[in-house]
Write a structure and sequence with these properties.
Layout: H1 7-16, E1 18-23, H2 27-44, H3 61-66, H4 70-80, E2 84-94, E3 102-105, E4 119-124, E5 135-137, E6 148-149, E7 163-164, E8 174-175, E9 182-187, E10 192-194, E11 203-212, E12 224-229, E13 238-239, H5 249-266
Parallel strand pairs: 12-13
Antiparallel strand pairs: 1-9, 2-11, 2-12, 3-10, 4-9, 4-11, 5-8, 5-10, 6-7
């Protein structure tokens, strides 16, 4: 028995590599989450950037709360099973009329995980549509890893500006239009990207990376994750810090140490030593 998705939706995810939309946050919840993000940005003097955009759930209690939201986890459990870790979180934010984009890519390329049995829940915190630069998918492209090339394009929101080194037929693109509070689910190997935000509002998305507890880090020396549902009999990942307040000193120290290790994995083979701003 599935908890959130129908059997047909689960089967379609297996075949296409994605499913959307999933209603996960109420209007009041998404307004509260966006408000907390933008309150932080006002206090810090500008949009969240650099390493602060990644693994943010160890820095902010409200993001740690979101990764445990039962409506998100019910849908993820239908895809990955009952024992679930949150491996990472990443903000993908495009300011109004901003040239930022995401090239066609597969998420798994540089993560170093032992299996591609990984699902991303991408939560819309503002309207995600064709005008604002919503994600786009190519169905059925999640069944094999393809070669990528690094561009380090300054407008590319990806860590390495990585892009697929094979031709992608744009006519096959499926545009992932979401209302605030809705989520999309996609497989770690699915071809996806997004275009610039041509609207007058910010396009704010939080990508939550979920994995079954049996996975491990196959490239780096150490890795961390948060158990969000079920039990972890494998203990391949070290437990993450759980914040009680925004930006606690202990959380910042933990985040710095983990980020340094993750950067070594993500940027292996290059001379880069930090997340791009």
């Amino acid at each position: 028995m599935t908890k959130s998705l129908s059997e047909s939706e689960v089967n379609n995810y297996r075949e296409r590599g994605y499913h959307f939309p999933v209603d996960v946050l109420s209007e009041s919840e998404v307004a509260e989450f966006r408000g907390k993000l933008e309150d932080y940005e006002v206090r810090s003097g500008g949009p969240i950037k650099g390493e602060m955009r990644h693994r943010s759930h160890v820095l902010f209690p409200w993001i740690n709360e979101m990764i445990r939201h039962p409506k998100i986890l019910d849908a993820v459990e239908d895809l990955l099973g009952p024992d679930i870790l949150c491996w990472n979180t990443s903000f993908f934010i495009k300011e109004p009329r901003d040239p930022g984009f995401v090239s066609w890519h597969q998420d798994a390329t540089y993560w170093g995980l032992s299996s591609s049995d990984v699902a991303t829940a991408w939560i819309a915190m503002s309207p995600a549509n064709r005008l604002s630069g919503c994600m786009k998918f190519v169905a059925g492209t999640h069944k094999q890893q393809v070669q990528h090339e690094d561009t380090f394009d300054q407008d590319n929101l990806l860590t390495r500006g990585q892009e697929i080194a094979v031709t992608v037929d744009e006519s096959e693109a499926v545009f992932v239009e979401l209302k605030p509070g809705q989520a999309s689910l996609h497989h770690v190997l699915l071809f996806h990207g997004s275009e610039p935000n041509r609207s007058d509002d910010r396009r704010i998305g939080l990508a939550i990376r979920y994995i079954p507890t049996r996975l491990k880090q196959a490239v780096g020396q150490r890795d961390w994750a948060t158990l969000v549902r079920g039990t972890d009999i494998y203990r391949h990942f070290e437990p993450e810090y759980v914040p009680k307040r925004d930006l606690e000193p202990e959380a910042l120290a933990f985040h710095k140490a983990v980020t340094e290790e993750q950067v070594r994995v993500l940027y292996r083979g290059t001379d880069k030593t930090a997340y791009r701003a």
